[in-house]
Every structure is written in structure tokens, then in C-alpha cells.
Amino acid sequence: MSLKKNFQLKALNVLTNKLQERRACYKLLSYLPNIPILFFYHEESTCPDCRVRLLVQKVEEARRVYTISFGLVVIREYVYYCPSCKRVFHAADVNRLVKPGCNYSYECLVEVGRLRYLEKRQIKEIRHILHTTYDIPISLTQVRRLCYQFLLYLGRYHYSHVGIINESIGKNGGYVLHIDSTCEGCKPHLLTCIDSLSGYVLYSQKISGENETELAIIFKRVKSLFWIPLAIVHDMGTGINKACALVFTGVLQVICHFHLLRDIGKDLFEAEYRQLQKELSKKKIYAKIRYQIKSLEKVIGSSREAQQLLPRLKKQEGLSSVELLCGCLYGDLLSLKSHEYSGKGYGFPFDRPKVHYYHTVLEIYKQIEVFETKKFSWDDKQKSRLYEIKNVLRKVVIDKPLRKTVKKLAEKMVIFDELRQIMRIALPADKYGLNDSGTIENPEELNQMEKRLSKFLEKLKDIVDKSPTESKQLKGVINQLEKYWHKIFTKPIIVNNGTLEKLIIPQRTNNISEQFYRKLKQLFRRLHGRRNVKKDLVFLPEEIALIENLKNKDYMNHVLGSLNTLPEKFAQLDCDSVELPFEKEKLDFLVPQKMIDLLKTFNPIKFVDSYFQKVA
Question: If pLDDT is split at 50, 70 and 90, which confidence band does 29 have?
């Protein structure tokens, strides 16, 4: 089938749209007897410089191209030339359909990227969808290659439209920059710069580490692309702090309150907590308790029967004295086991599961002493393993050094929890876990918090003055608070976006970045099934971070537009030869496989001997 002139592509588009309107099959080839042959011509018939009629120089060889809309098509391009100035003219529509030298159209590129990064499909799933839905045969390697290309095109489009992005974030009065990086092992680190007001991922890059020199170069680039931010939120890393002070001079910097509290807690009582953890492990209490639970389940009958016994304790119906005692002990031991790794999801020092475990051991031991005074027969106590369980717990209860460690720990935990209440971050009663952003509604709340923290700081200084030799860790807390005081409490920012004034209170945590990395690693694990995502961070392009923008409605409306128009926009990047506005740094994190294969037969002594034999 041959469709003439420059109407063939438009005709196929109209036909496809009509089929979609009538809810017909999307496969156009089922309605066409043969593979469509598309002829492409230059738009003008005369040379724009010489005004001389163009002549056909050649007709390109038939080229098979796979598309989402039409399936497989064959394209042939007429190449023209001017007989006067010898200038050559190609058909522009060809390059809008498919990249030169490629058999898969821009539509395939976008569809593969959408399936991979938005629907989180694996490579085999994508190949199956392309084959069954669009009649497109494709190899796994080609699918993987298109996935990488999608990210590179997305990066080129994002950074080439910085003006539109600046215009969009300018409507908010500016942007608040959140800086953070993540890694698995030593390197690489994936650094991202996110605007918390719009939710845009502005910039991403792989770095070897959070050193001042490397970060300063990146921050200068961010500054040149997106102007100066209203404020910067980051963690307590030395490199980030120095680089921000160097590049963003005079810009308000906010230290992440969650990171600050976590570091203070670790400095304050991590040594005592690790000692408690070590002593409990030495006594093998965890394994012994699990063994007693299994033994009780056998006495009762099975694990299922043991679990069914607990609801029966409340009803007190049809229970023998042995079942009653077994049920009480089984419930206590299950409660103790649940405290091995309990917590609110904040991690240490906010969650202290080993402390709860120790106190639960004490409570259960007291209960067992009460059980001994009740009218249970010696036979009941023997069958229910009461004495065995008591002996296991007794080793923990009578340990005086362990008790002393817990006492010291409790004193320091009181101080830390008081600070936690003042700063209102990761509170025990909250249910947000790591998603707690510590939002402040108005400036008055911030002022009250600052006053309370000032009093708390004076209280710590009084304690240190009274017992300076025993308060070394408290001195560390005081030093931390005084060092970062000007970055803890920040005044609200008043911005004018042209029509009205707006009050912006920067977030007190870097939670937006932490959430972003959790989502990104979840994507990696869904795609590959590996817990460790180091390979993804090494091999995937750094533009992977920009995928989050595709889920941002504001970004899609103002910057990118619809996903349906993305093939045209990617094609325009190639037509206009648009490249990144900066040069990407190439970091060699791994030795290439070709070099590894070459080094297997690498023998320097042999090379040296061979060289001097030839010279001689």
C-alpha cells in the first residue's frame, strides 16, 4: 500500500483517531491488507536562497519503523538538492517520527519509559506488552536501551526548559532548596536538589562523596540555572554546610531538626544503649525466650492452639488451672518477644526497643513471683514450665551492672525526651514515623519553641556546673545546640509575587528528600527484586531522579505537558540539536568489564622481558 505526498502520515493519524473514538481495536494493521509505506518529501519545492526548483537527488532505502499508533510501517525519504547552490534538503517529518539510525519511534521510547518508571514494569513485562498490545517485536536488550534513553531525553528536556521552570517557581515567590544525597555502601552518592514549595526535583547528579569542593561546583551550577533560593534545608554534613556557606552567601540556612536531634541522642546515650544491647546478647536471652515459647506451644498442643488459648483467658470458660497458667505465661513471653525490635519507625535514639525489652523482663518476673503465691499445684507449675522461665529471666533481673547501665540510660533519656518535646519532632504519640515533617503553622509557635529551648539550655549548663566530671556528654549536647543555634530557628520569609505578599516558613526537616529517596529505592527494588540498590545507583543515569516530576501535576501542566505530546517534544530536541546547558562530569566508579577481561591475561613481567629482547 502506497500513500502519496505529505498526507500519508496525517491520514494514518485520522484513521487511528476514528478507530479509537469507536472503541475499535487499537491495532491499525488488522484493518490494512499490507504494511503501510510512507513516503516523505521536503516541504518546499524551491530553494529558499536561490528560488530555483529543487530536484530529486535520491530516494533513501526502505526503512522499517515500529510505532505505537500504527504498528510496523515502512518509510522512504525523498532527498532533494538545489542545482544552483548544491544544497541538500531532507524531509523534516522523518526525524519527527523516528531518530536517525533507529527502528523504534519516539512513541515507543516514551511508552517504554512510561511502563518502566511510572507503572514500575520489569523488562520482560514491557517486552510482552509491546508484543501483545502493539504487535512490536523487540529484544530485552533493546527495551533496556530505550529505558536508559528515556531518562537521558527527560534530562535534556528538563534542563533546556529552565526558563519555564523558573517562571513556574517564581509564581510561588521563589523556591526553598532541600539538599541531600543517598548511597549504598561507599559510592556513588546520588545528590538531589528539590524545591519544597512546588515539589519539583530541580537537579540531580552522581558524586563520589559529600566533599566541599565537589558540592561547591554543583551548587554554583544550581545557582546559575535556578537563581538564588529563599532558604536552604540540609543535614549536618560538614561538606554541605561549608559549600552552602561558600556559594549561597547570605541565604538563610536551616539545619534539619530530625538529624540534629538524632545526633544529639547518639552523643548523649548511645554508649550506654549499646552496652545494654551487648549484655542482653551475652546472656542469650532472645534465643532462650524463643525456645520457651516453642516449648509452651508443645505443652498446649500446637502454635495455633496456643494462640487460640489467649482469647479464652478473657472469657474464663472451660479452663483448667494448667491451661490458665500456660496461657498467662505464653502471653507474657509473646509480649516480651514483640519488644525485640519494637518502635515507631524513627530508629535509634527515638526508638529504644532494648530498654522496653529490659523493663518487660522485670514486669514478667514480678508476675511470675505473684503466680508462685497463688493456689497452683506443683504439678501445674511444672507442666507450664514456670520455673524454667523464671530461671531464664532471673539472670537478667539480678545483674547489678546491667541495672546500673539502665539507670544511667533512663536519666539521659529523660533529658533527650524533654528536648524532643520542646522541638516537637518524632514524638512518641505521633503516628507519622519518618514522614513527620515538623510543620510550624505560624511564627508564634517558633518563638515559643526558641524560648523553651533557651531555658532548657540554661538548665543543662547548671547541671554541668554542679558536676563537671560526670557531664561530658551533656557538654557535647550544649556545644551542638550552640553551634547550630542560628540554623535551628529561622525567621519567616515574606515574599511578594507581584499581586500579594506571602509568608513562607521553611520546613524544619529534610523529610521531603528522605521520602523521595525511599520512593526511589522502592522503585529500584520493584524493578529488580534486589534489596541492595547499589547497582542501580551505579549504572542508571542520574536523570532517574527527575522521574518524580512526572507524578507532579503542576510540573506536568506548566513544564512538560501531557505524556501524549512527549514524543513530539523529544523529537524536537533532536531536530534542534538541543544538548545539556552544562557538561556532565564522568565518574568512573567501576572498572569496565572489557578492561577486567583484558586484565585476566595481564602480565607486566612478560611485557618488559619481551620489550628488552626486541631492543637487544
Answer: very low
Distance CA 257, CA 261 (A): 6
Residues 436-489 have pLDDT tens digits of: 666 676 778 888 888 999 999 999 998 888 887 667 888 889 999 999 998 988
The residue whose grid cell reads 500504527 is 70
Q: Whole-prediction pTM value? A: 0.84
Q: Out of 97-106, 312-321, 433-442, 596-605, give the one with best mean pLDDT.
A: 97-106
Mean pLDDT of 238-258: 93
Q: What is the pLDDT of residue 61?
A: 83
CB atoms inside a 10 Å sphere around CB 606: 10
Residue 434 CA to residue 437 CA, distance in Å, equals 8
Q: What are the backbone dihedrals phi and psi of residue 311, each rounded to the nearest 5 degrees, phi first?
A: -65, -30
In 316-385, which residue ranges form alpha helices assigned H by DSSP? 321-338, 353-373, 378-383
Find out whether 504 and 492 touch, Cβ atoms under 8 Å.
Answer: yes
Q: At which residue does the C-alpha cell 535551628 appear?
A: 488
Q: Is the peptide bond before 506 cis (omega within 30 degrees of 0)?
A: no
Are 60 and 167 in contact by the 8 Å Cβ rule? The answer is no
Distance CA 18, CA 5 (A): 22
For residue range 514-533, list pLDDT tens digits in order: 999 999 999 999 998 888 88
Contact 233, 196 (CB under 8 A): yes
Give the model's confidence band at 343: pLDDT under 50 very low, under 70 low, under 90 confident, else very high: confident
Q: Report the C-alpha gap between 407 and 276 in whole angstroms.
A: 11
Cα(290)–Cα(299) distance, rounded to whole angstroms?
14
181 membership: H or E segment, kind and range: strand 176-182
- Please, how many CA atoms are within 13 Å of residue 298, restricted to the half-sphere of its CB? 8
Distance CA 113, CA 148 (A): 8
Question: Position 276: which residue type?
Answer: L
d(CA 402, CA 279): 7
What is the mean pLDDT of the segment spanning 289-298? 93
List, in order, residues 6 or more apart from 198 with CB less than 8 Å away: 168, 169, 172, 175, 552, 554, 555
Rounded distance between C-alpha atoms, residue 102 and residue 364, angstroms: 71
Element (H, E) at 460: helix 443-466
Phi, psi values for residue 566, rounded to 5°: -65, -40
Buried b (16+ CB within 10 A) or exposed e, 204-234: bbbbeebebebbbebbebbeebbeebbbbbb
Eight-class DSSP state of 29 = G
Distance CA 315, CA 102 (A): 74
CA atoms of 296 and 304, how far apart (whole Å): 12
Tell me what the pLDDT averaged over the chain comes to: 87
H/E stretch holding 345 reads none
Strands (E) located in 2-134: 2-3, 37-40, 55-59, 63-67, 71-81, 88-89
Name which residue leads in pLDDT, 133 or 41: 133
Sign of CA dihedral 44, 47, 53, 59: negative
In this predicted structure, the answer to whether residue 510 has a pLDDT above a threshold of 60 is: yes
Provide Rg for the chain, Cα atoms.
34
Cα distance between residue 54 and residue 46, in whole Å: 5
Q: Alpha helices, DSSP H only, in 467-565?
A: 472-483, 485-488, 511-528, 534-539, 553-555
| Contact (Cβ atoms closer than 8 angstroms) between residue 289 and residue 333 | yes
- Answer whether residue 64 shows pLDDT above 70: yes
